[in-house]
């Protein structure tokens, strides 16, 4: 993203079509007391920084190299200083150069927006800036450049998701055999086969949707028992009514049509990933299903390039998860880290032979897909830039052109939804295609499906009166002026835009 400063500032001020929704007042701001932006800046971010400090302390206990230990201690001091700066509402400062091209974009936008304080800044930019600034504390060292302060948390939470992992592994192995043998279509008319396939697609996508309920950046008050209640078949069934916008049928139709019209051609589905751990597990379940059902010939996964929003997927998280299920007995029955404050000291029950076999089936299938070039990892720095995806055609034209090659681009999670819609104060009845700007045009060339459990104020595509109804539900915000119903992850939207229309 090397672009001329003057050009960038001019484009930013002109705003509209290339960079961001209409004006700076339209963006959610950390100063707005009725919004989740305000709560994030004051309550969540300091907790996340404290967790980062604690993680480094635990790692430093085992470091013997004096130079590395000294650098680690200095990072701890810098994290503590950043937390103080945040809690005392200091000004955001320019990011130090660390050799990566995205620093220029962050700093040019900070200068263009004028002085920003932590408690009076566009929420989307300030939150991205926070994680990018934390990352520079590591990239500017000799021994900690690739260290992920959230890695320990990701795998610990995946381990705690054992009941749901085992349930889905068993279900998926059975499903894969049915798809391979064609037994699910026996004795059915073509219409019945298509309807059954559509229902299966819907169910697999809904499993993938609710996997987002384990966003670690929001787990500042949930116990592992609470996490497990958010997962599993019964929870998914009960949550079906909570998908307030559901455009999955349109996505199924385009994949079905592509399979018919491009029978011997590549048919690609892209997934812009969100969280690691259990959510990545269900993303891979969905990817495996799409390939096995021949709804795609290739699935491209887009992880982040740097530790991001606590639990977002890095390429190494994919390898860590694959490694865990290659030897599931060792992973799921390993003693808890004695330094983990959540450790309870109770040895886990051993896995059964059947459970091990079902998890290793996944390992073998996913590894084979990866080896055959059907399951591809493709990170890009654009995914951790500080602005909205309205900027994609202008700031990352090569990535934009690449996404046009896909039959469907699935954007996972709340942050990707916020970036698609510019994190702006849209009327909730605004069409999704309007709110995503240039990407929502029928000739954008990119067909988008957004999976999102709502954890922020911005929401679009609702029927008239639905936002008011949801505000009147328990903890929905009522007449307070807050859209609290959209903060907890209880409600979800699945929105579709056909840029190939």
SSE blueprint:
Elements: H1 5-14, H2 16-19, H3 36-60, H4 66-87, H5 102-113, H6 123-139, H7 151-160, H8 162-181, H9 190-210, H10 224-229, H11 233-239, E1 243-246, H12 248-261, E2 268-272, H13 278-292, E3 298-302, H14 315-326, H15 328-333, H16 353-371, E4 375-377, H17 392-395, H18 397-403, E5 408-412, H19 413-420, H20 432-435, E6 447-453, H21 466-471, E7 492-498
Helix pairs in contact: 3-4, 8-13, 8-16, 9-13, 14-16
Catalytic activity: beta-D-fructose 6-phosphate = dihydroxyacetone + D-glyceraldehyde 3-phosphate; beta-D-fructose 1-phosphate + H2O = D-fructose + phosphate
Pfam family, one: ARMT1-like_dom
GO biological process, one term: DNA damage response
In percent terms, what proportion of residues is strand?
5-15%
Mean of the pLDDT scores?
90
- The proportion of residues forming helix, as a percent range, comes to 40-55%
Q: From the alpha-carbon coordinates, what is the Rg to the nearest angstrom?
A: 22 Å
Low-confidence residue ranges? 1-9, 14-19, 215-224
Q: Count every helix, treating DSSP H or I runs of 4 or more residues as helices.
A: 21
- Strand order of the main beta sheet, please? 1-7-6-5-2-3-4
GO cellular component, one term: nucleus
Cofactor: Mn(2+); Ni(2+)
InterPro entries: ARMT-1-like_metal-bd_sf (IPR036075), ARMT1 (IPR039763), ARMT1-like_metal-bd (IPR002791)
Protein name: Sugar phosphate phosphatase
């Amino acid at each position: 993203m090397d672009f001329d400063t003057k050009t960038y500032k001019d484009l930013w001020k002109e705003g509209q079509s290339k960079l961001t929704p209409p004006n700076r007042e339209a963006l959610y701001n950390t100063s707005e007391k009725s919004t989740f932006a305000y709560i994030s800046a004051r309550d969540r971010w300091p907790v996340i920084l404290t967790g980062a400090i604690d993680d480094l302390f635990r790692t430093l206990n085992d470091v013997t190299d004096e130079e590395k230990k000294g650098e680690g201690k200095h990072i701890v001091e810098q994290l503590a200083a950043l937390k103080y700066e945040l809690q005392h509402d200091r000004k955001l400062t320019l990011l130090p150069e660390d050799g990566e091209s995205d620093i220029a974009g962050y700093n040019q936008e900070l200068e263009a927006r004028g002085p920003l304080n932590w408690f009076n800044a566009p929420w989307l930019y300030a939150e991205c800036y926070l994680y990018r600034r934390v990352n520079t504390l590591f990239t500017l060292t000799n021994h900690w450049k690739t260290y992920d302060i959230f890695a320990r948390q990701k795998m610990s939470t995946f381990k705690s998701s054992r009941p749901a992992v085992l349930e889905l592994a068993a279900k998926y192995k059975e499903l894969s055999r049915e798809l391979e043998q064609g037994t699910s279509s026996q004795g059915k008319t073509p219409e019945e086969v298509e309807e059954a396939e559509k229902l299966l697609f819907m169910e697999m996508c809904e499993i993938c949707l609710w996997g987002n309920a384990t966003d670690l950046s929001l787990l500042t008050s949930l116990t592992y028992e609470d996490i497990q209640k958010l997962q599993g078949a019964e929870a998914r069934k009960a949550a079906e009514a909570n998908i307030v916008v559901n455009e999955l049928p349109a996505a199924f139709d385009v994949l079905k049509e592509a399979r018919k019209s491009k029978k011997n051609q590549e048919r690609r589905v892209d997934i812009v990933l969100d969280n690691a751990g259990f959510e990545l597990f269900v993303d891979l379940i969905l990817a495996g299903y799409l390939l096995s059902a021949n709804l795609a010939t290739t699935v491209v996964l887009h992880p982040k390039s740097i530790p991001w929003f606590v639990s977002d997927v890095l390429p190494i998280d994919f390898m860590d998860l694959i490694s865990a299920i290659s030897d599931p007995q060792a992973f799921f029955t390993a003693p808890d880290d004695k330094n983990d404050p959540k450790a309870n000291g109770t040895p886990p029950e051993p896995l059964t032979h059947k459970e091990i076999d079902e998890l290793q089936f996944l390992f073998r299938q996913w590894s084979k897909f990866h080896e055959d070039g059907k399951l591809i990892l493709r990170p890009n720095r654009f995914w951790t830039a500080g602005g909205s995806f309205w900027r994609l055609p202008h700031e990352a034209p090569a990535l934009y052109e690449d996404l046009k090659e896909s039959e469907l681009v699935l954007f996972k999670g709340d942050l990707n939804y916020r970036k698609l819609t510019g994190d702006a104060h849209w009327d909730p009845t605004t069409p999704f295609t309007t709110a995503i700007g240039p990407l929502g045009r029928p000739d954008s060339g990119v067909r988008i499906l957004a999976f999102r459990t709502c954890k922020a104020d911005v929401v679009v595509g609702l029927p008239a009166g639905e936002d008011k109804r949801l505000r009147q539900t328990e903890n929905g915000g009522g007449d307070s002026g807050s859209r609290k119903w959209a903060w907890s992850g209880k409600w979800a939207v699945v929105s579709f835009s056909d840029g190939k229309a």
